[in-house]
Write a structure and sequence with these properties.
Order of helices and strands: HEEEEHEEEEHEHEHHHHHHHEHEEEHH
Helix content: 25-40%
Largest sheet: 12 strands, mixed
CATH class of the largest domain: Alpha Beta
Distance between the termini: 82 Å
Low-confidence stretches: 1-31, 301-322
CATH topology of the largest domain: Rossmann fold
Radius of gyration: 25 Å
Length: 467
């Protein structure tokens, strides 16, 4: 059969177009969702003894516009049956690597070296024996956009409380679509600090999505929150907490009560006496580590080993200024190594300098999260709210206050809970299936300061047994 030259050219052109379309579709799919197994990491000796996956999930009409980065670690026990949890760090805008490396993931930076190398060398990683992945599969997600390795074309337009709620919900359903083997697993939402504001709203949106038949279904069972900001008026309890801990005098506390009448957040600018007392109060706490009042507050980012060196030194005392965190310098150092990014399969050119917390242009739209707790309690979901009892930033008494305002009857009254025969904190259980627990001697990020106690607390609660 004779084929004309023009027909051959037309056929070749069509064939070329098909190839281009298929290549474009392949790139689109790749950018929409991608995942990779990570078997080794720089700084850790040998292959990882657990299953780590990293990846991106694209959101929005054009998946190229918004890409959510995540770290996923399978349960080291029975991933087919063990619960699945999504963890959202606070900030807003702190990478979930905070939970993975500093709180309850299977890896931690080795900060117990005799001398810590501050020259910029690669930090070492060690195993954390109290990892929650011993009993639970965990997705550590970098949201809101601009956080960690997640990126978007228009960051400012995507950074608000409600955007964070919607994006987390969309991410989870897309992630489960790509991981259908986990659809039947019990699902829990976990968050801490600022994420006490969007966290309960995310849980409620997931629940409402299930009710209207969004796919895939999510086997939602409950949520847990650590030292959560809830009312945005935590300062009203920060002052009585400071008095109870002996941080301010009886006379100043009495004057604050008298002049401010219990309202320390929305202060009338004309109330000069209250403003004077507030300024004095702030001065009293200005050199204190408000996230953990028992811990020192240093000028520089110092790991534990350097803290110990300072303590041993009788020659020079560290200058006390607004506190910095050694985890910032360690994680920034590690995640800005090119080989680390290659191991984590980070897309080249998407993120410049990595920083643990992204702190700009976030819009606060949710005034408080109390009503979300009310709705979730009515739906019967389990919840665990826990607080380090030496946190002056979000004091445990502020958390107790809003829980008490839910007005649910007490099923099991205030009692100590134990870890290895010792009091690890105190707990109370309510009829709405909510448990409140303090972690004795701990601070704002209780999972970081007291990993053993928090591991015991979590493994009991996730197994639905009393603390």
């Amino acid at each position: 059969m004779h084929i004309s030259l023009s027909s051959m050219i037309a056929y070749s052109f069509c064939h070329f177009l098909i190839i281009i379309v298929l290549l474009g579709l392949a790139i689109f799919i790749q950018l929409g969702t991608s995942r990779s197994k990570v078997e080794v990491l720089p700084g850790f000796e040998g292959p990882l003894p657990f299953k780590l996956e990293t990846g991106y999930v694209g959101l929005g009409e054009s998946h190229n516009d918004m890409q959510v980065f995540y770290y996923f670690i399978k349960s080291e026990n029975d991933p087919e049956k063990d619960p699945l949890m999504l963890w959202l760090s606070g900030g807003p805008g702190c990478s979930s690597i905070s939970g993975l490396l500093f709180q309850f993931g299977p890896l931690a930076f080795d900060t117990d070296l005799e001398e810590y190398d501050e020259t910029g060398s690669l930090p070492n990683l060690i195993l954390r024996p109290q990892s929650w992945t011993k009993v639970c599969s965990i997705i550590f997600v970098d949201l809101p956009f601009g956080t960690g390795f997640s990126y978007a074309k228009n960051l400012t337009a995507q950074r608000s409380d409600w955007k964070l709620v919607h994006h987390t919900h969309q991410f989870l359903r897309k992630w489960l679509s790509d991981h259908p083997e986990f659809i039947s697993n019990e699902f829990y939402m976990g968050a801490d600090s600022y994420s006490g504001i969007p966290g309960p709203a995310i849980v409620l949106e997931i629940s409402n999505g299930n009710e209207i038949g969004l796919q895939p279904p999510i086997n939602l069972q409950g949520y847990l929150l650590g030292n959560p900001i809830t009312t945005r008026k935590e300062k009203n309890h920060k002052i009585p907490f400071a008095h109870g801990m002996g941080l301010i005098s009886d006379e100043l506390y009495a004057s604050l009560q008298r002049n401010c009448r219990g309202e320390y957040v929305d202060i009338d600018s004309r109330n000069e006496l209250c403003s004077r007392d507030i300024n004095y109060f702030e001065e009293c706490l200005s050199k204190l580590n408000v996230e953990h009042i028992l811990k020192p507050c240093y000028k520089d980012d110092l790991p534990k080993a350097r803290e110990a060196q300072w303590r041993r030194s009788l020659i020079q005392e560290p200058q006390l200024v607004p506190c910095k965190h050694y985890e910032d310098s360690l994680s920034n150092q590690w995640l800005n190594y090119e080989n680390v990014r290659k191991s984590l399969n980070i897309r080249e050119g998407t993120i410049g300098k990595w920083e643990r917390c992204y702190k700009t242009d976030f819009e606060n739209q949710i005034s408080n999260s109390f009503e979300f707790h009310v709705n979730l309690s009515a739906k019967g979901y389990r919840s665990l709210i826990f607080s380090g009892d030496h946190d002056a930033l979000v004091p445990f008494i502020s958390t107790q206050a809003w829980i008490r305002a839910l007005n649910y009857s007490i099923v099991e009254d205030w009692r100590p809970w134990l870890q290895q025969g010792q009091v690890a904190g105190y707990t109370r259980t309510y009829s709405n299936r909510m448990s409140f627990a303090t972690v004795k001697g701990s601070g704002h990020i209780a999972t970081q300061y007291n990993p053993e106690e928090c591991f015991t607390m979590f493994t009991r609660w996730i197994a639905n047994v009393p603390l």
